[in-house]
Design the sequence.
């Protein structure tokens, strides 16, 4: 098991991933970044893949940065599945989408998203908004120390 | 007269599943019906055994020749010949009369096919008038002339009474044509209307009213002294049929009235000073004229209904197409946003990481790329906002427009597009009713527009004022910018409409379009005023709210 906490970037857009990864690296945060290029890949990494058993040594994912529009299982599906499972329900999820449709925002929160960020290109250095969101969840926010601990403090992230 | 039975028998046989009757059977039926109707009509013949004021066969002949084709004329001829040869006169006179009857129908059918839309003649008022003239009045002279001449030549009628017999004959045929043809055409054509219970009840009430009026006007219901010429009373129930139902029902109502009239006159009602024949002739003329008027009206009403339905369907389609188009532009805008955003990001990264390794020209070009990319993203964002105005359903509430205007300007001042030195003044504004979020956007876009077009002027100033007009308030955002050509007026509010060349001023060209869309969605209006040099006034109205 990795010692560092991991964040999971889920997006099918390589350009976004490149920029987000670069911006997160520049924050100097001690995190490991995992990348999933689809909803199904994300679910597998979270040990929620259909049929596939959870990884023997599951990575300790503490924050998920989730895109909504992806082929196959989309972001909303990932949210739904994460919320259904006791082990993943408490992991904070930040939706990072190019859509500011009121419907998308509402549905995301209804399915348990903790934050909703619209992809932006006109303000600040490239990807800075993603890095800032990550910094908030890792540094300022108190995270559950281990997913299993959720049972003791059930409502902290709802 | 019970002649409505035979026609309706034909009507049923010529429509619905009975239309699949083999043609020979249909034609045989036609001969029988024609013969029966003719016999019925001739039983009312008074001036001469062969000349009757009521001659339904004319209508039967024209309707069949129109819907089955002119080639079936021998059937009409046979029917007419049989009627006459069994009534009065010789084979020769019957031959002449039958020839006249047949020719009348053939000419009428030909003229209607040629000039009045064929079997669809009763769908439009102008065709009904043509029908009246061509079939009702013109072709019927042929039958009258052939018939009366045959009688006179054969010595069956005296030449001296040629005139009166001709007129009776002509009017009898004309009445039959105007009353019976539409009835048969309508009832021989599907789809039959499906009535609701309420409609059936209303039809029954209409029929009752019709019978009551018929009795009052033509019958012996009233004592002799009170029998005034009350024929105008027939109009309201016929209008009822025309307005509330369809041309088919109107035609049927006229037939009912005809039956009541004939029955009444034969029973001794309403004849007054004139003889029975004259009464019948007058009745026929009256009903013929009424029939044309009623049918024309019914056709207009039906036309109107068809138009309304077509309009509704069109507007529905339009709405669907709009929704589709919006969804399409939305997804296009989204899909374009990411790649353009990537261009912006990579440009920024190169500028950041490799800036010191690049020469000035490369840096300048990178700046150009970034500027273009930013303009594109800005445009797409505005486009998305423009599209979503339609979708954002927010509850209407009382909105303090004064605070909203201040908030919008403050946002603008803090935002990326800094307004610079601008004097901003808000008068006390009347409260509006609407969605605060959308109305904030109205102010923001108008201010941003004013900021843009005052750039470079001395003492830049943006003023907001408003007036309460009862149900509707007017708000005005004025500036002392460059103004616009007053001829442009409301076209400013169209999407992608901008003052000057594209490079003159920043912006997407959607700001004012969004303003217009939001205001219109609130039920208000937008307009703009300028003298072309010293500033502009952007005005809009909104429903009044409670409070200031």
Sequence:
């Amino acid at each position: 098991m990795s010692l560092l906490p991991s964040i999971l970037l889920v997006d099918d857009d390589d350009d976004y991933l490149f920029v987000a990864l670069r911006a997160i690296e520049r924050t100097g945060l001690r995190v490991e970044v995992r990348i999933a290029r689809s909803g199904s890949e994300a679910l597998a990494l979270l040990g929620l893949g259909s049929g596939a058993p959870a990884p023997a040594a599951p990575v300790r994912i503490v924050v998920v940065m989730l895109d909504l529009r992806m082929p196959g299982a989309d972001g909303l599906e990932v949210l739904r599945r994460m919320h259904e499972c006791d082990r993943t329900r408490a992991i904070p999820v930040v939706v990072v989408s190019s859509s500011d449709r009121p419907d998308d925002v509402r549905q995301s929160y209804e399915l348990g998203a903790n934050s909703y960020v619209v992809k932006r290109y006109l303000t600040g250095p490239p990807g800075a908004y993603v890095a800032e969101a990550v910094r908030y969840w890792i540094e300022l926010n108190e995270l559950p120390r281990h997913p299993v601990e959720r049972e003791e403090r059930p409502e902290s992230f709802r | 007269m019970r002649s409505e039975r035979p026609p309706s028998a034909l009507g049923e046989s010529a429509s619905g599943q009975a239309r699949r009757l083999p043609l020979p059977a249909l034609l045989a039926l036609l001969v029988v019906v024609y013969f029966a109707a003719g016999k019925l009509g001739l039983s009312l013949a008074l001036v001469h055994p062969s000349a009757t004021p009521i001659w339904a066969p004319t209508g039967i002949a024209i309707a069949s020749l129109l819907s089955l084709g002119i080639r079936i004329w021998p059937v009409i001829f046979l029917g007419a010949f049989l009627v006459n040869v069994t009534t009065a006169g010789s084979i020769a006179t019957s031959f002449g009369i039958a020839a006249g009857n047949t020719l009348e129908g053939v000419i009428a059918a030909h003229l209607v096919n040629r000039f009045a839309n064929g079997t669809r003649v009763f769908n439009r008022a102008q065709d009904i008038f043509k029908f009246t003239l061509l079939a009702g009045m013109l072709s019927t002279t042929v039958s009258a002339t052939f018939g009366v001449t045959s009688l006179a030549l054969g010595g069956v009628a005296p030449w001296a009474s040629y005139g009166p017999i001709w007129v009776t004959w002509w009017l009898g045929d004309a009445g039959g044509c105007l009353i019976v043809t539409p009835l048969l055409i309508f009832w021989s054509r599907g789809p039959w209307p499906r009535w609701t219970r309420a409609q059936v009840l209303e039809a029954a009430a209409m029929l009752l009213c019709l019978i009551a009026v018929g009795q009052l006007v033509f019958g012996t219901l009233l004592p002799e002294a009170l029998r005034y010429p009350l024929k105008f009373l027939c109009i309201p129930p016929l209008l009822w049929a025309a307005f509330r139902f369809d041309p088919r029902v109107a035609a049927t109502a006229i037939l009912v009235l005809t039956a009541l009239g004939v029955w009444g006159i034969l029973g001794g009602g309403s004849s007054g000073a004139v003889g029975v024949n004259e009464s019948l002739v007058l009745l026929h003329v009256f009903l013929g004229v009424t029939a044309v008027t009623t049918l024309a009206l019914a056709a207009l009403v039906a036309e109107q209904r068809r138009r309304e339905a077509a309009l509704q369907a069109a507007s529905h389609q339009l709405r669907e197409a709009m929704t589709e188009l919006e969804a399409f532009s939305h997804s296009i805008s989204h899909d374009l946003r990411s790649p353009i955003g990537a261009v912006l990001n990579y440009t920024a990264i190169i500028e950041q990481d490799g800036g010191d390794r690049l020469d000035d020209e490369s840096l300048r070009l990178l700046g150009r790329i970034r500027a273009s990319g930013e303009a594109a993203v800005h445009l797409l964002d505005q486009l998305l906002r423009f599209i979503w105005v339609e979708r954002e359903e927010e509850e209407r509430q009382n909105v303090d427009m004064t605070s909203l205007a201040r908030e919008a300007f403050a946002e603008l001042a803090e935002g990326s597009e800094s307004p610079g030195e601008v004097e901003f003044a808000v008068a006390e504004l009347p409260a509006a009713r609407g969605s605060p979020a959308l109305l904030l956007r109205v102010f923001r876009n108008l201010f941003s527009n004013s900021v843009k077009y005052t750039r470079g002027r001395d003492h830049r100033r943006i003023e907001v004022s408003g007036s309460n007009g009862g149900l509707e308030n007017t708000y005005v955002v004025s500036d002392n910018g460059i103004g616009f050509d007053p001829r442009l007026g409301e076209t400013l509010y169209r999407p992608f409409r901008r003052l000057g060349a594209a490079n003159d001023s920043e912006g997407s060209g959607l700001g004012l379009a969004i303003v217009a869309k939001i205001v219109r969605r609130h039920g208000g209006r937008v307009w703009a005023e300028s003298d072309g040099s010293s500033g502009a006034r952007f005005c809009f109205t909104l429903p009044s709210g409670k409070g200031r």
User: Anything to note?
Assistant: The two ends of chain A are 27 Å apart (CA to CA). The domain at 6-146 of chain A is CATH 3.40.50.2300 (Rossmann fold). The helical segments of chain A are 14-26, 39-45, 75-84, 102-110, 128-140. The mean pLDDT of chain A is 82.
